[in-house]
Amino acid sequence: MDLYYRLNVVSFKLPPLRERREDIIPIAMATIERFNALIGQSVSGISPEAINILEMYHWPGNVRELENVIERAMNFVTSGLITPECLSNYLIQRVVGLNNDTKDSQQADNPFHAKLRAVQKQIILDAIELAKGNKAKAAKMLGISRSTLYEKMKA
Fold first, then answer.
1. How far apart (Å, rounded) are the C-alpha atoms in residues 131 and 145?
2. Exposed, middle or buried, 136 (CB in 10 Å: 0-12/13-18/19+)?
3. Which domain holds residue 111?
4. pLDDT in tens, 11-58
5. Which of 95, 121, 146 is the last residue of a domain?
6. Of 95, 120, 136, which residue sits at a domain end?
7. What per-residue confidence (pLDDT) applies to 100?
8. Which of 57, 69, 50, 49 is nearest to 21 (CA)?
9. Does residue 87 sit in the same domain as residue 110?
């Protein structure tokens, strides 16, 4: 108990990462530098599309989750930049809304949602290409039903 009171002399509140969006990319870049040195990689940065996804995610796991996402992405990098294809499916699904079909008038006017729709479209096209045109297989890769894939393709 004495240790707790000694450590509790100075306390401060650190807001969660979702309230410090401006810190996401600097933390991600520092993580890239750390893992480049640790595992001998040469990742140079993050693509603008991947940055959009990282900034739109709500980060319930805070910095530790961001570091895990970056570490995982670094294992899938093919070009030197972390791209949306390198990011976890669960992250992309939550940000892009592959499992969330809610639409309202505010989203139509929001430039961020237009960017997300463009990223979503590209992810779907990439999945279809990777599945060699097999839409059922592409839907399975994305974690959605085939009918949802067709709906997303129409939008």
1. 15
2. exposed
3. 97-155
4. 778 899 988 989 999 999 999 999 999 888 889 999 998 998 898 888
5. 95
6. 95
7. 53
8. 57
9. no
Return the CATH number at 66. 1.10.8.60
pLDDT of residue 45: 94
User: How far is the C-alpha of 104 from the C-alpha of 89, rounded, in Å?
Assistant: 24
CA–CA separation, 108 and 130 (whole Å): 30
- Are 127 and 90 found together in one domain? no
Residue 109 has pLDDT above 70, yes or no: no
Domain contains 26: yes
Contact by Cβ (8 Å): 115, 52? yes
4 is a domain residue: no
Residue 141 sits in a domain whose CATH number is 1.10.10.60
Instruction: Please count the other Cβ atoms lying within 10 Å of the Cβ belonging to residue 137.
Output: 15
First to last CA, the chain: 59
> Shortest CA distance to 54 belongs to which of 5, 110, 96, 12?
96
Choice between 145 and 65, residue whose per-residue pLDDT is larger: 65
**Cα gap 106→110, rounded to integer Å:** 6
